[in-house]
């Protein structure tokens, strides 16, 4: 009701904690039960008419009992999931400085374009004559990726970054096998600072992983690589810019050393967003590099996917690209889906059914068309500038492990400055939640003690960056002053306090089960 | 540029604060001769309207499933997705969130993952399900690797009824990992003796149900044969709606169940993104790939959810991980969970009955077309027909008449020598008019 009678609006008492609510709710923060606690077996939110009876042709394999699912009506469904959404932090909620993850703005134009029926409602196996526009979109995105990376081939089907790594490393393995060196080249070099997916990928297809030690300036030195090179080395998997947020100054020499030794250079392109329009990985000597469309080209992360991980390839690896790929025949685009149609190419196989993440392709191309050559370059520059601005704003309070190199798109701090404060990196990160921020990436890369990796992206205004810096400065000073309570119990204001992960792992409860029937009263 | 908040004035002030003269000073680690001068050779930025025009023109060249009588399946199916699903998955807090590594501010994602795992476990009849993989085909590859780890053997037997592209994914992975694959030949009637191919090196038998030709299979005898030889039965499905009507793979004795969830909530998307469903017996839990969400409590004793058992995963175990997967299919999981919530037990089972009834009707109509033979006796919503001449030509001629009449099997396996077979799918979206149009067009082209 409109307060038009001059009723006083000041609260009688100021503290909230003394007034717990009956429901456990806190105004807009509403507790939500599990679907299985509120749904009913007989309820459905989809109106379907029972079909006319037909004689079943299921071969006698009908389900015997109930499945156990429950349903909700449409309004209940809406409320259930909207309430769940309100317990989540997203880019649209606030600054999301998760290093290495590139949480940049997700334009809604991209969502709109992906939902055009001509893209969202076509089937991967309908006649190719009826999807020429779909093939054109994939080809155009491929062209953009090749121009930006300075390469001449790209395989589009990998489903995410790690899947792209797998496809790229398979192409390397196929090339080695084609040279008859499959039996002897089985070692892959991986720097200690690498993403966990790199060694996991190499091991998955039978490579032996050897670690390249980190130098104390956060970079990989060509001499350390050369020391490990031999006739048994197949490739190096090097992230560039690396996970310390530094562009590897010796990347060209490392590429040359690999090639001179008959080996390949796989580049983890997770951080390509820092150098789009500033340098071309192809010019640096890479043989394969995946591109996380969901990082660099802003297709949304969606709470953990879907991603897309196209892999650009050097001329040496291009013939081994997996199926499918698109070939131009006159005016017509043809999706080559079988090795027997591959012509002179020697595809190593197939990494997924169908053609890849079309929904992500559409979003990425919409993003690239919007930005253009000028906008993409500016985005890289703004991302790098913003990271260095944060670094400059915090460097007098927080310790920087590698001060000799400028940061690229992310600023890395260690926990040296927290020594003797009783506050850990984890505590500090959790206290950021109370300040309305998503924590930075922490304890990664592994080569830095108590690492804090801050990636603001190009999507923040200067005012937003300034407020973030001030909030972190306030926290840092509190930690140094010994205000440990602000950290040890944090977060205090999130929908949940810290969760007991040990308990979750020790006695895994991975699905809802009906409560045991109540004990009969004695 | 509308996505970039910084102004030139901001940039100048920020450079001053950083203490460098210009932006290129921050890129000094890039070797000077590798730094790009000027812009790459691509067009400059565009406004929204212009981007819509360009992409709209491309989209208009395609024939959307909803615009024609549409019977294409073979691993991806046209189903109706309620409007609520697409609205909810575009909520900012879902769409623009990350993998829930900070559970205090990601309970929304974690709770729906827990609900998803429960739904998948019920549907498949298995004890545990993970929080998704990329899709059914890559999930099948992961299932085979998992069976190798569990049994410490390295030979997989693939049914000839496994989707040929799924089989290719498994073969590629196995070749690269130096594992062995034995593939049974494709049998359109599903009459194969897989038990005879199991030996003491066999880690698993991979069988799809309904198979790629549409045959509904009783997995129980095969489950027994696997158990007797110490091999695992991996049951694959490409049409999750079938689980609304068919006996669950778990109830038939599967050890690992993997499938494609695209039919519920996700849409066609020209092949991706989709969502891989993955479930297993709980004794194999620690060998499972992918993320798992588990229940726990917070510091105040309130129920909450976290990602758990991550010591299996690449970010902890590196080269000893059970899989290299990181990003999975989160938002498609959400779409699946919402659609499955709307359907519920009552809606899903009815949807499955409608699919089956429609397919039965269509099969009977097609059987009446001269020269056309319906091969599949027991099926759910997809079956195989034999046509005179090349199936691929028939499909092109049908397309020219505005009917998308299925998938020629030769498109999936050009070298199988099965050039006269068409896989025909029929879901709840097909009307009596669609079926009549299909039959009329088919009569004209065969």
Structure description:
Chain A is of the alpha/beta class and 522 residues long. Chain A has two domains: 110-367, Aspartate Aminotransferase, domain 2; 372-500, Aspartate Aminotransferase, domain 1 (Alpha-Beta Complex). Chain A contains 15 helices and twelve strands. A seven-stranded mixed sheet of chain A has the order 1-7-6-5-4-2-3, sandwiched between helices. Chain A has a three-stranded antiparallel sheet with strand order 10-12-11. Chain A has a two-stranded antiparallel sheet with strand order 8-9. In chain A, a hairpin with a 2-residue loop joins strand 8 and strand 9 (332-336). With 446 residues, chain B is α/β, with parallel strands linked by helices. Chain B has helices spanning 8-18, 48-60, 83-89, 92-95, 107-124, 136-151, 164-176, 220-229, 314-317, 330-367, 391-400, 409-412, 432-445; strands at residues 128-129, 155-158, 180-183, 202-208, 232-237, 256-260, 276-280, 292-297, 303-308, 373-374, 382-386, 407-408, 421-425. The longest helix of chain B has 38 residues, at 330-367. The mean pLDDT of chain B is 97. Classes of the chains: A alpha/beta (522), B alpha/beta (446).
Key phrases:
heterodimer, A: 522 residues, alpha/beta, Aspartate Aminotransferase, domain 2, Aspartate Aminotransferase, domain 1, 2 domains, seven-stranded mixed beta sheet, three-stranded antiparallel beta sheet, 15 helices, 12 strands, 32% helix, 9% strand, B: 446 residues, four-stranded antiparallel beta sheet, 13 helices, 13 strands, 36% helix, 13% strand, globular
């Amino acid at each position: 009701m409109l307060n038009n009678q001059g009723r006083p609006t000041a609260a009688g008492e100021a503290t909230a904690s003394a007034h717990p609510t009956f429901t456990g709710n806190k105004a807009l923060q509403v507790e939500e039960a599990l679907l299985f606690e509120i749904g009913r077996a007989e309820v459905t939110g989809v109106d379907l008419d029972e079909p006319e009876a037909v004689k079943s042709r299921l071969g006698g394999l009908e389900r015997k009992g109930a499945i156990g699912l429950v349903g909700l009506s449409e309004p209940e469904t809406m409320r259930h999931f909207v309430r769940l959404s309100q317990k989540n932090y997203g880019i649209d909620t606030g600054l999301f400085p998760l290093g290495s993850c590139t949480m940049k703005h997700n334009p809604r134009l991209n969502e709109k374009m992906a939902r055009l029926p001509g893209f969202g409602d076509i089937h991967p196996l309908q006649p190719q004559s009826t999807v020429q526009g779909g093939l054109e979109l994939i080809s155009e995105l491929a062209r953009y990726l090749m121009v930006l990376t300075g390469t001449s081939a790209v395989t589009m089907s990998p489903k995410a970054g790690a899947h792209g790594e797998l496809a790229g490393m398979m192409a390397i393995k196929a090339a080695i096998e084609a040279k008859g060196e499959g039996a002897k080249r089985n070692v892959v070099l991986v720097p200690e600072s690498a993403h966990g997916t790199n060694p996991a990928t190499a091991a998955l297809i039978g490579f032996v992983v050897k670690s390249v030690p980190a130098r104390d300036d956060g970079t990989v030195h060509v001499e350390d690589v050369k020391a490990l090179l031999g006739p048994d080395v197949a490739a190096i998997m090097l992230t560039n810019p690396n996970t310390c947020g530094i562009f590897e100054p010796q990347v060209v020499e490392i590429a040359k050393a690999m090639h001179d030794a008959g080996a390949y250079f796989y580049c983890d392109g997770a951080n390509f967003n820092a150098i789009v329009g500033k340098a071309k990985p192809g010019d640096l000597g890479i043989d394969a590099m995946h591109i996380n469309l969901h990082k660099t080209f802003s297709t949304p992360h969606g709470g953990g996917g879907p991603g897309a991980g196209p892999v650009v390839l050097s001329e040496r690896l291009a013939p081994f690209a997996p199926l499918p790929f698109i070939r131009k025949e006159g005016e017509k685009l043809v999706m080559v889906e079988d090795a027997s149609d591959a012509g002179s190419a020697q595809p190593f196989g197939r990494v997924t059914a169908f053609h890849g993440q079309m929904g992500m392709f559409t979003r990425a191309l919409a993003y690239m068309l919007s930005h253009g050559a000028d906008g993409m370059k500016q985005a890289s520059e703004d991302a790098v500038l913003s990271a260095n601005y944060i670094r400059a704003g915090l460097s007098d309070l927080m310790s920087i492990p590698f001060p000799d190199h400028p940061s690229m798109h992310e600023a890395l701090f260690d926990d040296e400055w927290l020594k003797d404060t009783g506050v850990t990196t984890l505590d500090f990160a959790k206290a950021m939640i109370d300040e309305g921020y998503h924590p930075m990436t922490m304890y990664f890369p592994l080569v830095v003690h108590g690492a804090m990796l801050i990636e603001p992206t190009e999507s923040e205004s200067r005012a937003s960056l300034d407020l973030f810096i001030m909030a972190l400065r306030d926290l840092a000073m509190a930690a140094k002053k010994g205000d440990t309570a602000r950290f040890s119990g944090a977060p205090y204001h999130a929908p949940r306090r810290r969760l007991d992960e040990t308990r979750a792992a020790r006695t895994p409860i991975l699905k809802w089960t009906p409560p045991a029937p109540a004990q009969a009263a004695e | 540029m509308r996505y970039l908040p910084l102004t030139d004035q901001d940039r100048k002030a920020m450079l001053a604060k950083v203490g460098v003269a210009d932006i290129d000073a921050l890129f000094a680690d890039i070797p000077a001769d590798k730094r790009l001068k000027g812009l790459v050779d691509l067009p400059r930025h565009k406004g929204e309207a212009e981007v819509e025009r360009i992409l709209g023109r491309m989209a208009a060249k395609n024939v959307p499933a909803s615009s024609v009588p549409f019977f294409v399946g073979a691993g991806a199916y046209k189903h109706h997705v309620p409007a609520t699903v697409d609205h909810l998955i575009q909520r900012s807090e879902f769409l623009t969130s990350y993998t829930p590594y900070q559970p205090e501010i990601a309970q929304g994602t974690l709770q729906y993952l827990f609900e998803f795992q429960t739904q998948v476990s019920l549907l498949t009849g298995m004890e545990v399900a993970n929080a998704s993989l990329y899709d059914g085909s890559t999930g099948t590859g992961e299932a085979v690797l998992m069976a190798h780890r569990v049994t410490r053997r390295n030979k997989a037997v693939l049914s000839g009824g496994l989707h040929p592209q799924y089989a290719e994914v498994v073969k590629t992975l196995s070749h690269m990992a130096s594992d062995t694959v034995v593939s049974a030949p494709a049998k359109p009637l599903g009459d194969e003796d897989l038990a005879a191919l199991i030996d003491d090196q066999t880690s698993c038998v991979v069988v799809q149900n309904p198979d790629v030709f549409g045959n509904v299979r009783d997995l129980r005898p095969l489950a027994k044969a696997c158990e007797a030889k110490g091999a695992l039965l991996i049951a694959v499905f490409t049409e999750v709606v079938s689980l609304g009507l068919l006996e669950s793979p778990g109830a038939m004795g599967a050890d690992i169940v993997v499938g494609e969830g695209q039919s519920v909530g996700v849409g066609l998307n020209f092949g991706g993104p989709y969502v891989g469903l993955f479930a297993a017996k709980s004794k194999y839990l620690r060998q499972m790939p992918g993320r798992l969400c588990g229940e726990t409590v917070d510091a105040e004793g309130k129920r909450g959810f976290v990602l758990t058992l991550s010591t299996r995963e690449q970010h902890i175990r590196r080269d000893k991980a059970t899989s290299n997967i990181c990003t999975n299919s989160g938002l498609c999981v959400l779409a699946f969970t919402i659609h499955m919530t709307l359907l519920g037990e009552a809606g899903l089972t009815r949807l499955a009955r409608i699919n089956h009834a429609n397919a039965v009707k269509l099969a009977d109509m097609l059987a009446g077309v001269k020269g056309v033979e319906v091969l599949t006796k027991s099926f759910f919503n997809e079956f195989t027909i034999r046509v005179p001449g090349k199936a691929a030509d028939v499909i092109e001629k049908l397309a020219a008449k505005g009917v998308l009449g299925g998938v020629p099997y030769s498109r999936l396996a050009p070298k199988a020598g099965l050039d006269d077979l068409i896989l025909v799918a029929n879901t709840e979206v097909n009307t009596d008019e669609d079926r009549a149009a299909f039959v009329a067009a088919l009569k004209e082209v065969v």
